Structures are given as structure tokens and as C-alpha cells.
Amino acid sequence: MLNKLFGWRKKKNNQGQDPTIPFGRYSDNNKPLAKVTRWTDAENLYKEKKYIECMDAFFDYLRDDVADNVIYKRNGKEGSFHFYQGSKVVRGSFNEERIYADVTLARMPQPSIPVMRRLLEMNFNLFYGRFALEKDRLCMKFDSDPAAASPSKLYYGLKELATKADKQDDLLVQDFTILETTDTDHITAIANAEKEIKYEYFQKWIKETIDLINTLDAEKFAGGIAYMLLSLIYRIDYLISPEGKLLNDLEKIGSIYFKKDERAVIEKSRDMVEEFKKLQGLTKEEINSYFFHSKYTYSIVAPQPYKTIADCIHGANQNMLWYRDNNHPEIASQIIEYGIMYCQYSYSLPKAITELNHLYMMINYADYFRTLGFSTNYYDLQKNRFDESAIISAIRTIQQTWKEKFPLMGFKTQNLRFDSLINFNYSFTNEMEFLNLEAQ
Asked: What domains lie within the chain, and their CATH numbers?
């Protein structure tokens, strides 16, 4: 059932199965019990000074068996590994004397003082690794004596290497024309048809948001406008899932709002609109170059207690009431969406919550999923008609899937309202606010 709901299998011979399309950011906050046990094994083996056996347990913990993101080999007292993080591959080796890992950032055919100055400045922000130049290869390195490489140091050291490299490689190549992209053969290209749809909706959602903002009084609706712009960032991030510089540009737009300064919200929103207009002006080829599929090992955001998520949902729902009650359902829905998708964007969420968020987006953006080739149509906007049985069945399937881990989750489907989209969204997220995610 989950394969049908969320597109975890490829469509075969047009028989109604949904396409395999990943959505949103990778989360490593869903380790099964067996993997958590391997972390404990790694810590115990390290304390016993069995450093090579500690490597076995550590990389077994790090590996996501579904994503197939970590390749690990050992031969006696030495071994090798490599793992994927977006556009980068971290490669390493170990023996009884040294643990070593590195990742290629770019190729630099000729020496460049500006490039080296940039890397020298970034070095000061690294805790475990360092930037390096080997012949014409710009890279990042990490190494350690096994006796000093506890599982925690290994985890965070390799995470720094992987996440920094994945973020910086595209930025460096964009900022310095002398640099060349390299070591990206593992990246999976997506079909041109999927790129066309993503480009279409990327432009469509930006245009619709800006057009609606242009009809509003900027001072009276300052809060609602800010919510819509932030919601737009999180929707593009989750549903379109851009990579590279386009992803970084979206992050920069969000930082305009959250920067701690004295500027009024209306000014920040104006700047955000201008940045979105710049993205609108990019060529199709530029935008499409940031649409590709890749594997990840580390989440770039951290888990949070469920109360943090519930408080965010509650705050957004309270702030949308004025807009709903004053006949601005479009703005109200965007504020509700902000509540759950800010969490999806900013935190490493339990998979059960991500699946509920995904269902919410499938209902609210049914046309997008239908265009991508998904078969289940949860909501018909033109007829304001919900497929109630399919929605309730999807929720119950999610509950059943995660019953062992979250036996008290309890989503009360009887409280859902199906008379309008705004009332459905409010009732759906209300139920999410009060979920009990105490793990057993």
C-alpha cells in the first residue's frame, strides 16, 4: 500500500503504479532498532580497544540499507569504505595505525590565489577536517589515530567532511570560473519529462505567489505575505527538490526573513520577492541543471522533540484564523502549510511524520502529483471533492506501519472535515499537533 501511496516502486508498462521520485531532504532520524544496537556495539568495541571491529559496527550503523549509501569492505586488519552525500563521494581507508578519508571538491588546472584564500578562510570554521590541494585536485581530508577515533568523533568528523563538501563544490565552481566540476559520475540524471514538469511548477508557484502578493495591501497583510513566501521556499524544497546552487539560493531567501536585525517584515518580504524574481529570470537550462537524483548518508538538519513540531503547527494554525475568518482562504492555507513544512525543512523528522506531511502535500497539490504520473487523486480542486476513503486508508496505513515504534500515535480520522480544503487542512494539522510520538 505504501508503494502505491508514495511511489516507492517504478511504474511498469503503464499499469498504474506510481513513479519512483524522491521528495524532500534526506533524514537519518529513522534508524531501526538493529542499527541503533550497532551503534552501541561500536561504542563498546571502542572502549575495549578493538578498533578494527569498531569500524565494522560503525559503518553498519551508518549504512542505510534501503538507500544503499555506504560501501564497506574489510580484509583482516585493514579496510576501505566510501559513501554518498548528494553530489559528493567520501572515500576512505583504515588499518591499525590510521583512519583516513577524503572527498574531491573540484579540479583546479591552474593555481588561483582567490580560490586558496577562500579555502583558507573556510578552514577556520572546520572542527575535524581541512581543505587541501593535491596536484590539480581540490579536496577535503580527515584522518585520525584509531585510538582517538571514538564512534562520535568518526560520525561528526565524516559528517563535516560530507556535508561541507556537498554544499561547497557547486558554490566554488559557480564563483570561480577556473574550477571544473569532477567526480560526479554517481549522480543519477532524471528524465527530461520530469525536469519539464518541475520547471513548469517552479515557475508557476513563484508567479502565483507574487501575483497574489501584488493584489494585497503590503502593510495590512505583512504577516500573511511573509508566511506565503516562506511556505513557497519549503514547498519548492520538498516537492521539486532542487540541488546545488539553486538549493543554496532558496536557503539565502529564507535567511533574509530570519536574519536578526531591526528591519520591518514588510521590507524583508520585499527583498524576498526580488530574489524570487531573480530565480524566475534564470534560463530553463540553468534551472534544470539543478534537478537530479543522488544518495545521502547524513541529514543536514537535526532531530527535535515532537513538542517543538507541535508548537510550530499550533502557532501557524492560530495565526491563520484571521485570514480564514476574513475570507482569505488561499493565504490561510499557506499559513497552515508553513506550520508543517517549516518543520519538514528545518528538522530531521521521524518517518511517520514525513509520511503524513507527504500525504498532506499530495492532497493540496494533487495536480502536480497527477502530472508527474501518480495515480491516486486525493482531491479535485475544481469540484471541491475529496476521496475520503483513500485519505483515511492512507492515514491508517501510516499508523499501522509505525505502530511498533509509535504505538500511541493515534491519528483521529473521525475529526477530519471534508467540506472545504481550508477546513480539511486545519482539521488534519490539528490532529498532527496532538499526536503522541513516545517511542517504545
From this structure: 33-175 (3.30.1460.10), 192-433 (no CATH)
